Amino acid sequence: MRTIKVEHQKGHEIVGEHLLQQIREGQLEPGQKLPSVVELAEAYGVGRSTIREAVSALKAMGWVDVRQGGGTYVKSVLPSEPRSGADLLFQGAESLVELLEVRKVLESGAASLAAERRTEQDLERMRDALSLMEHGLNVNDTAEGERADVAFHMAIAAASGNSLLIQMMESLSDRLNASIQKSRELWFYKEQSTASRLLKEHQAIFAAIEQQDKELAGAGIAAHLTKVEQVLRAALEKESDSRKD
Q1: Cβ distance 154 to 169 under 8 Å?
Q2: Among 6, 14, 134, 163, which is 20 to 30 Å from 143 by CA?
Q3: pTM of the shown model
Q4: Distance from CA of residue 207 to its chain's centroid?
Q5: Residue 204's closest CA among 188, 223, 222, 217?
Q6: CA 51, chain centre distance (Å)
Q7: C-alpha distances in angstroms, 184 versus 10, 235, 243?
Q8: Across the strands, what pairs with 67?
Q9: Are 11 and 44 in contact (CB under 8 A)?
Q10: What is the tens place of the pLDDT at every residue in 49-62?
Q11: What is the pLDDT of residues 176-221, one digit of tens each?
Q12: Distance between CA atoms of 170 and 178, rounded to whole angstroms?
């Protein structure tokens, strides 16, 4: 690989995006082994920890497999790209509140199915996302927390085993990221305590899925998104009132 210099502040994001672009464009093919951490660190001009963060994010999103002592490989079966019809449907949503209503319907069902059908690999993807979320909280890296949040919800959809539901969630991915970013900006990351509570809510949802408790998993997602919706509604109303003044 040619040397690509990146800024250290957000190096893992840039590295991850570039590797993902290579996978999507076929430069890194399904099943192909990635260069070692040392080789990637040298190629990108960053530290090894930056490479590990980027790879962990790609693993949490389902693009690569990390084999203990065997290196990192592009997934043999890649996550589906958004389908045009569903993509257009979700792009037409007028607000984040509408998006949350759609998410609540889709994700509560996905969580119930995930609790019933999850595999150990599915659980590992969720654990990876939660670990990244916790790391982002500990180092006050909101961007990492947002990426991990999206990865966690996408991992639940993948664990549902329903290909149509997975495609619909993937079609939502860009707006899902925007809604999570906005909700965190408005409330969750204003205080460390609220950020910690958000992490605990995700951990509780994971525990229900791990224990294969369908009802608790679905209810946990619904309660979590209802709370986010309430926060967004209140914040958006406050914003609207301030504009009138």
Answers
A1: yes
A2: 163
A3: 0.60
A4: 18
A5: 217
A6: 18
A7: 19, 11, 21
A8: 71
A9: yes
A10: 889 888 888 886 77
A11: 766 676 666 655 444 556 678 888 999 999 999 999 999 999 999 9
A12: 14
Cα(160)–Cα(115) distance, integer angstroms: 8
* C-alpha to C-alpha distances, 219 to 149, 213, 225, nearest whole angstrom: 18, 10, 10
Sequence length of the chain is 245
- Contact 99/181 with Cβ under 8 angstroms? no
Tokens standing for residue 148: 């991990």
**What is the amino acid identity at position 141?**
D
One-letter amino acid for residue 156 of the chain: I
Beta strands in the chain (DSSP E): 64-67, 71-74
Measured between alpha carbons, how far is 137 from 191 in angstroms, rounded to an integer? Answer: 11
Phi, psi of 106 (to 5 degrees): -70, -45
Quote the tokens at residue 241.
Answer: 């009132």
Tell me the Ramachandran region of residue 45: left when phi exceeds 0, alpha when psi lies from -120 to 50, beta otherwise.
left
Q: For residues 66 and 69, what is the distance between their CA atoms, to the nearest angstrom?
A: 9
Residue 91 tokens, joined: 């792009």
Report the candidate in 130, 147, 135 with the shortest Cα–Cα distance to residue 210: 130
